[in-house]
Amino acid sequence: MAKIKVLDEHIANQIAAGEVVERPASVVKELLENSIDAGSSRIDVMVEEGGLASIRVTDNGGGIEPEDVETAFYRHATSKIEHSRDLFQITSLGFRGEALPSIAAVAKVEVLTSASDDGRARRIVIEGGRLVSNEDAAAQQGTDFAVRELFYNTPARLKYMKTIQTELGHISDVLYRMALSHPEIAFTLRHNGNVLLQTLGNGDLLQVIAAVYGTSAAKAMLAVEGESLDYRLSGFISKPEWTRSSRSAISTVINGRFVRSFGLNQALLKAYHTLLPINRYPLTVLRLDMHPSLVDVNVHPAKLEVRFSKEAELYQFVEETVRSALRQEVLIPKAVKRE
Ligand code: ADP
Ligand code: MG
Questions:
Q1: How far is the CA of 99 from the centre of ligand 2 (A)?
Q2: Fewer beta carbons below 10 Å: N end or C end of the chain?
Q3: Could you say which protein family the record assigns here (predicted)?
């Protein structure tokens, strides 16, 4: 007798949730990515008790069509890619169609969304992966996504959560990354009603750096700008005397996606060379733009890793561009001063 069965959608979603939804910050990341992909210009995040009690993300993006609202919660349901060739040219933050079913499998979710400006909206409630209701409603264009009682039906995972302060720290980190990656979007983060981050969304990256790291850090930054045939680099790096003890001071944004890249970090540090004290890192926000086919983002569902198709060339371009910014701003003025 056959013993092998294909798991039903409900169990499959619970398994995927284990990978996609590690902690409240993972939910915030997925919801923000969806809001950004929807073309929002303002995104408000409200969390209670480190996100364990509730997470609410409200955006003014394109919204979800009424007939798509339930489908959006199916596994591998996405509006962002269609053909396998699209995988080699991803221009959106999401594309796996895994976030909504995964989140809904381990929480109580309520979404109010409208894809039109006539007030027509849809409200859907899903708890532990089971549809509770899906009905007409009224709302302005955009999406209001509420996630309550995360991990209420997976006690083992819930037990694993750290203190509210730790979970909130991870959520703040996600907000910082998103705000630094998208200075053209106005973000707010509130925890138990208190405003923790607010950006204007006027496109001024230095203003976002000030909101995230403080105004004195923003004042110690040098502008970086460079272009090659394949790549464009822009952003800010700190003067060598303004350093931090953690590598996480280095932020890299590729085509609007916040990533971690050991290779890019090394290129950056090589550019500073002997200007940095041992075990100190510059504060940087570097934005790299390239054709989507030059970077593979399909590496891991939740991790921030990417792969580059011409890495050696890219690293050299970054190193040289950063070095020339440092040379101009740091070395030349010093030489002049000595006279
Ligand atoms: P993915 O982002 O990989 O497509 P998700 O499970 O995160 O998968 O979302 C499924 C779909 O739901 C998206 O492709 C998108 O069409 C829709 N969606 C989710 N959140 C939003 C939002 N805030 N605004 C508009 N559409 C959304
Ligand atoms: Mg998504």
A1: 5
A2: N
A3: Belongs to the DNA mismatch repair MutL/HexB family.
Query: In which band, very low, low, confident or very high, does the pLDDT at 330 lie, cut at 50, 70 and 90?
Result: low
Backbone angles phi, psi at 95, to 5 degrees: -175, -5
The span from the CA of 266 to the CA of 16, in Å, is 33
Does residue 287 have a pLDDT over 60? yes
Burial class (CB in 10 A: 0-12, 13-18, 19+), 203: exposed
CA of 236 to the centre of ligand 2 (A): 29
β-partners of residue 206 are none
Distance from the alpha carbon of residue 254 to the mean position of ligand 1, in angstroms: 21
Q: Answer whether residue 332 shows pLDDT above 90.
A: no
Q: Is the CB of 38 under 6 A from ligand 1?
A: yes
DSSP state letter for 292: G
80 CB within 6 A, ligand 1: yes
Which secondary-structure segment (H or E) carries 211? helix 205-213
Q: Which residues contact 121 (CB under 8 A, 6 or more apart)?
A: 63, 66, 112, 113, 114, 136, 137, 138, 139
